[in-house]
Amino acid sequence: MRRFTKQENSWMFYDWANSAYSIIISTAVFPLYYKAAATNAGVSASNSTAYLGYTIAIATFILAMLGPILGTIADYQGLKKKFFTFFFSLGVLFTALLAFIPGDQWLLLLIIYTVAAVGSAGANVFYDAFIVDVTTEERMNKVSARGFGLGYIGSTIPFIISIAIIILAQNEILPIATVTASKIAFIITAIWWGLFSIPLLRNVQQKHFIKREPKPIINSFKRLGKTFKEIKKYRALFLFLLAYFFYIDGVGTIITMSTAYGSDLGITPTNLLIILFVTQVVAAPFTLLYGRLAERFTGKKMLYIGIFVYIIVCIYAYFLETTLDFWILAMLVASSQGGIQALSRSYFAKLVPKEHSNEFFGFYNIFGKFASIMGPLLVAVTAQLTGNSSSGVFSLVLLFIIGIIILAFVPEPKDEQSKSQNNHSEWKGVKM
């Protein structure tokens, strides 16, 4: 089996770098830090969870609006790297700024978090689009899954350091306040993210592009309009995006609001951090397993399995009562979280015209981000109306069901079709 190339490894290593932000800022330390700040300011638990949901919705809406436009412009030769670098730098800078906001300023924390989230998600648009430049269609499932796997493994290192500092501070072993320990975690995240992004910045180049032309912005809008007019030409691609819109909504909502949800259930911050760490460790091999099984059974079939697992997660979440229940829920999420994200990325990459990869990954972003608006809003509104966060998580079942139904109508890429045919032939040859 051919080894990974320098470009493939450099591209995959950005998952190692950026996943520190995903776990420490999006999922673990920052939500708990924010919840504590809001509680100290007199904000109720359900309202602070709701405000976090609204903030995530605002951040994703901003980027959803910018994604296709910036992606279309970035399809010009030499611009993909520049757009990636801008958003990546924005994310790193504002992640570091979180450490300099007073702990009682919960609203300012949410504002800085919004900008950092736009930077992270914006960089991911162009990072995802780079997959067509670093590998072939036949290797996309493996490369994408290994990227997510590296992300889960790599994120555990700054996460362990961060939670160790926080726990030692909580137990007064370190002579610093817990607030200060959390701020150190923000700085660690920014440094880790910036340092390990260097391989991508040095070794990955845009191979598929459109030649520069006069009035690039005007012509980019014209190309975007042409894509909408010719939408029937890309029926499979947009049908997949519609399915993705629904099922990734549930996935993203559970990721970003899991600690706030666990906090509302009465699980201690220390237990939440430990659970999240174990989730990262368990998710790594499962993500790689999804990539390997996709080579055998096709990416589409593995997406079905991932969505089904998340349906079980949402149903089980409604009946959570104990810390053990949350552990079980977290392990279920770990079994499919990385796999469903990795295979969605590679499946979509196989469908897009390579020279227009940024434009179409802009659409991939807008569908994913608009979905991320709907999910947190659904949880936020339901939590406020019922006073119960579990009801909001349970309502996400509908989104997964709609997603899996639409996915059934999406044609498979050519390499996936050949796998299905070969598997079918093998089963026909088996005597029962």
From TrEMBL:
Keywords: Membrane, Transmembrane, Transmembrane helix, Transport. Pfam families: ATG22. InterPro entries: Atg22-like, ATG22/LtaA_families, MFS_dom, MFS_trans_sf. It is a multi-pass membrane protein. Gene3D superfamilies: MFS general substrate transporter like domains (1.20.1250.20). GO terms for cellular component: plasma membrane. GO terms for molecular function: transmembrane transporter activity. The chain crosses the membrane at residues 12-34, 54-76, 83-101, 107-127, 148-169, 181-201, 236-260, 272-290, 302-320, 326-348, 360-381, 393-410. Residues 236-432 form the Major facilitator superfamily (MFS) profile domain. It is found in: Cell membrane. This is MFS transporter, UMF1 family. It comes from Litchfieldia salsa.
